């Protein structure tokens, strides 16, 4: 699963440039053009990293940063603040409000991605790993291979994306709507019950004698991925 970056920038040209370069580097992106939209999008889908402009319509970047830090789902989300304000006092203010890093416009893309990957490695090391393991299940995102113990598991593309998403967020409960956004995409219309169908297929593929079902159904909430022991 590609890391999801929320770009909060009201300058169309810069937002488009950031989106293009993040996509080229293998990231998934969303764009918010003002502070209120940024908070709404971060609530609908938790970003793996936020690129946050200081000067925004409706809510300033520092206020968005402060509110994201107060939310449970984004308390530890890496935030890079981008701004034309380069004074030391401004950098200190941004960091005091919860930003993890601070870049002054104009900045180089290679430096941006070096800082982005450094933050993601600290926050979620598995996001940048090609092979992710949990218990006896191993997912190779580059070779599109899955193993459980000594057995190779054959999955369809959707089941593979589901498993990849689950294994990178162990024990977290996802609603059907959240899984639809993460696996199918926000711009694709798919009925929520479709999630149940693919969960069933994934469960069947991962079933192994003497092994527990790693997918837990949480009544009235959704699904979580767990392996005991």
Strand content: 15-25%
Lateral strand order in the biggest sheet: 2-1-3-4-5
Architecture of the largest domain, CATH level 2?
3-Layer(aba) Sandwich
Unreliable spans: none
Relative helix content: 40-55%
* CATH domain fold name of the largest domain: Rossmann fold
How many helices?
A: 8
Indicate the radius of gyration in whole angstroms.
Answer: 19 Å
Q: Give the integer mean of the pLDDT values.
A: 86
The arrangement of helices and strands along the chain is EHEHEHEHEHEEEEHHHEE
- CATH-defined superfamily of the largest domain: Response regulator
What characteristic shape results from the CA principal axes?
Answer: elongated
Largest sheet: 5 strands, parallel
Distance between the termini: 25 Å
Q: How many β-strand runs?
A: 11
Domain count: 2
Task: Please explain how this structure is put together.
The protein has two domains: 4-127, 3-Layer(aba) Sandwich (Rossmann fold); 129-225, Winged helix-like DNA-binding domain superfamily/Winged helix DNA-binding domain (Arc Repressor Mutant, subunit A, Orthogonal Bundle). The mean pLDDT is 86. The chain has helices at residues 12-24, 35-44, 61-70, 88-96, 109-123, 157-168, 176-184, 193-206; strands at residues 4-8, 28-32, 49-53, 79-83, 101-104, 131-134, 137-140, 145-148, 151-153, 215-218, 222-225. Strand 10 and strand 11 form a beta hairpin. With 229 residues, it is an alpha/beta fold. The chain contains eight helices and eleven strands. The longest helix is centred in the middle third of the chain and has 15 residues, at 109-123.
């Amino acid at each position: 699963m590609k890391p999801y970056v929320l770009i909060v920038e009201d300058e169309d040209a810069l937002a488009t440039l950031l989106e293009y370069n993040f996509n080229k580097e293998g990231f998934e992106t969303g764009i918010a053009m003002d502070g209120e939209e940024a908070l709404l999008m971060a609530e609908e889908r938790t970003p793996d990293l936020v690129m946050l402009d200081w000067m925004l319509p409706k809510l300033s970047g520092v206020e968005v940063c402060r509110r994201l830090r107060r939310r449970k789902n984004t308390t530890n989300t890496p935030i890079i603040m981008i701004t034309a304000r380069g004074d030391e006092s401004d950098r200190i203010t941004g960091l005091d409000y919860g930003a993890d890093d601070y870049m002054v416009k104009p900045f180089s893309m290679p430096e941006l991605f070096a800082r982005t990957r450094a933050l993601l490695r600290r926050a979620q090391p598995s996001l940048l790993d090609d092979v992710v393991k949990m218990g006896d299940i191993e997912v190779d995102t580059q070779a599109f291979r899955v193993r459980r113990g000594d057995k190779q598991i054959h999955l369809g593309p959707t089941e593979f994306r589901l498993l990849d998403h689950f294994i990178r967020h162990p024990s977290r409960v996802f609603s059907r709507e959240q899984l639809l956004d993460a696996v199918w995409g926000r711009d694709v219309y798919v009925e929520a019950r479709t999630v149940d169908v693919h969960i069933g297929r994934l469960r069947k593929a991962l079933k192994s004698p003497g092994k527990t079902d790693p997918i837990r159904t949480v009544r009235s909430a959704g699904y979580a991925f767990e392996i005991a022991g």
